[in-house]
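Can you make up a polypeptide sequence alongside its tokenized fold?
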Amino acid sequence: MPPVALVFVVLLSLQTSPDPQAVRVPPPGATSAVAVRADRPLVIDGKDDDPVWREAPAITAFREFQPKEDGDPRFPTEAKVAYDSRNFYVFIRAFDPHPDSILKLLARRDVRAATDQIKIVIDSYHDRRTGFEFAVNPAGVKRDYAIYNDGQTEDDAWDAVWEVATTVDSLGWTAEFRIPLSQLRYAPAASNTFGFGVWRDIQRYTERVSWPVYRISRPGFSSQLGEIQGLVGLPSPRRLEVTPYGVTKNVTVARGGGFDHPQRVAGGADIKYGVTSNLTLDATVNPDFGQVEADPAVLNLTAFETFFQERRPFFVAGTGVFRFDVNCSQVNCNSEGLFYSRRVGRAPHLTDLYGDASSPTGTTIIGAGKVTGRLAGGLNLGVLEGVTARETGPQDRTIEPLTNFAVVRAFQDLRHGESGVGVMATAVDRNLDVWTDPYLRQSAYVGAMDFRHRFPGGRYQLSGSLDLSRVAGTGQAIAATQQSPVHFYQRPDGSQTFDSTRTTLMGDAEELLFGKVGGGITRFQTSYQRRSPGFEVNDLGFLLRADQQSWNNWFGLQSLHPTSIYQQAFWNFNWWQYWAADGLALERAANSNAQVQLKNRWWLHAGATLGQLGTTFCDRCARGGPAVRADPYFAPWFEWDGDSRPPVVPAVWGSYWRGDGGRSESVELNTQVSVRLASQFNVSFRVSGSHNVADAQWYGNFVDGTGVTHYTFAHLNQKTASLTGRVDYIVTRDLTVQVYAQPFVSKGTYSNVRELADPRAAAYDDRYQPYAVSSPGGFNFKQFRSNLVLRWEYRPGSTLFLVWNQGRQDFVPAQGTKSLAGDFGDLFDAHPDNTFLLKVSYWLER
């Protein structure tokens, strides 16, 4: 694959003069407004006493869109727009005859508090696919998002540097925005037209109004915006923003039977540079993500990897540009895709082999950069490259090699954004040595293309993709790839042939989806998806398994207009079937779900699935062994969410699963309470518990003295409990303190160990036979994770973080005799791993 820099040059060369077909036209019935140029910079104080606000025409044609679509609003709203050579200004007056009823609740930035809200949406490219959201509540708490794929993706990690001021007066409340043009992206032109919209939430009535009217019954978000015209002579600045930072960190490190607490001092920088007015370079040098919340505790007893959300700001911001889903439909979507940014800076691969307690838990990112934007003619572009350092364990043995990661994503909009075609390429290259060569793939490349087409009228859409993958390495490394749970080439009854001499592995994936996405009360989608046995993207993507094809069908009903019983209601029906690539039936299931918001603003959710219908098999249960006949299961669930407006908001969620002819079952119950103790103080607690009885839990594969492999299963009785607590104290809208803590305990006992005898037998008991184990054992896993973060944005874009992170963990291979309460008590006797961090950044703009 050519270097990313060369790919970028080639793509940049595609920038030509604007294509007449790319000129955007407003959708039928959309409303246009005019911006007025300001003679001098405005004072952002939440008041309309600047001269330009007397000249700017008012936007008044607001309409209710929730709970009633295109209804008459309860209270009037007015908006005005202005601009100058550096900024885009908006003033909004939200009339309210009872201003004393407007809640002024503080919250952390980007957190939606239970208050009124005003939001402006700017599609500065005017491509009807992307945009930026800037929201504020009456207390001045800011939220901002980047929008991709016509609103299908909202990037809440995108943080722009902008100003807003609010006031509450006798007429209601106001919001005055100043959005620097340097924070937006737009095509260079003598005169620009932006897509534009305004939303207002009246929280005590759960009413939402907008200009122009937003129709939930139609697909898309950006494509429903109106227009702001009259933007003449906007500059094309070469924006440069630099945020250098210094970090001092104290970390607990196990060493020599004891613990050290070395002090580490480091520095780095985040850089944002406007290559052009519509292309932006983001880079980070020696980044530190110590202020990011810890991952939730889990105990994974399956053959598949656990997916964790990306939380690091550099990678989360702009993630919509690089999104390319795999095995994702309206029925089932498991976060699989070609780009999983947590591969960059991951935990070292070979810590268990060469490392010890003092080895690093994450790979150092030397630097990373990305270019994102939109070229003339409607070409959306994203290029990312990152380099991670070599990490070592004792005796200088490599536990993670020096690695280069690269991603290129491009998507060409057609028919004013109603259709499009795109490509994506990823590359991973590792600098292997004698320690890593037998275990890690040297290179991994993926190339893919996708398309979407929305038929005239906007009701029906066809989309699809084709992906190709190739990984290369030593025979030992590729053999491990073939034998991994993603592939399981070694299955004795499988159609694939394991080859220990292979040094490459290639595969492909195909998807085709067709559905009704707008109009009326009905929606549907049908899709076919396939992944060949050799398809492998996990070096930079996330894939649970290859060797699968599926047919998924979804049909939904929606009622978006209030009745005497409910505010809105949804009901869907699903049917899906899975097969291995050779046609082995893996799953047939039917499902139905319903969601209703009652007049008192409670949400009720419920559903149920009947699965493994007919003759189906599990080709992953024996972890590389033969496929095992599966029995039908029944899985109902429910959820109740209380009214979000009062100070106390409860929620309850529960599920049940029963299968294996009644021999296996599990029940899970989660309860959560959020309490607003004061306008600045919020507390939430979530208690989760589950009891899992699995009669056919995989126990292990054992090879006897004659070379025969015994695939064993056991009866598992497992109990799990966790408590997740959050406390938010908002000193001011720029100074916040957040506490997050989660103790977690999961314990279980194995019994009745058996091995496979006739795995495809129709009768459950005929599939297994006794297997002698003197003491089956069990497990007791305990973990505690917590974060205390003080965040102070002491000037716009400049932030101070003070962080205390603590982790405790213990594992013993037996359930033990204590109760769950006793296990929680023992958890705090485990040695704590503490990290104290002070990080200060300073935002500079030129």
